[in-house]
Design brief:
Layout (H helix, E strand, L loop, with lengths): L19 H15 L5 E6 L1 H15 L4 E7 L21 H20 L5 E10 L12 H4 E9 L6 H7 L1 H26 L1
Parallel strand pairs: 1-2, 2-3, 3-4
Helix pairs in contact: 1-2
Amino acid sequence: MLVQPYGLTRSRDFELPESIQAMAVSHLQVIRQKQPHGPYRLAGFCNGALIAVEIARQLLQSGETVEFLGLIDPPSAYTTPPRIFTTESVNQSIDEEATRTRLLNHYYRISAAYAAEYYPSALALILVESKENAYDPTSGWAKVAASTAIHRVGGKKASHSHAIRLHADDVGMILRKAIQEQKRGHETREGENA
């Protein structure tokens, strides 16, 4: 199931949740309508990775099983200074420019304010090479999760938003392999606890 980010409708008057945690609550309601109980497999790209972490934490707190959590090119696990965009820095048509700029600034602001809490299970960190990585995306994630498997994809440098498209097949293969590895690890832990 694919949960769409807020703002893709391009409406000028959409309401955006004011935190990553609030976005996670909202997305989790949609997910649970389709799948009320786990095990769940979650992944997110960019700031969607932060939302996936929060959804996973909320599911675990409610007693559900999260079989897989994958973060694809996430922002830092810790709070950071937000990036600010101007309408001139966003390459969109004139009528979409202000809305797109508002949306980007909102996501960067709430992502920068987010500090991941401890995640008591494994996560897969998938890093896609891009030419604009101004931060070390591994920063903090190994300390936030019980265990972190780091996978790197690269070769064709592109912008962050285009890098995922250039390497979609590689990211898909890594996700498939990482899901199998985490599932085996989860089954092994359950067997040890039985």
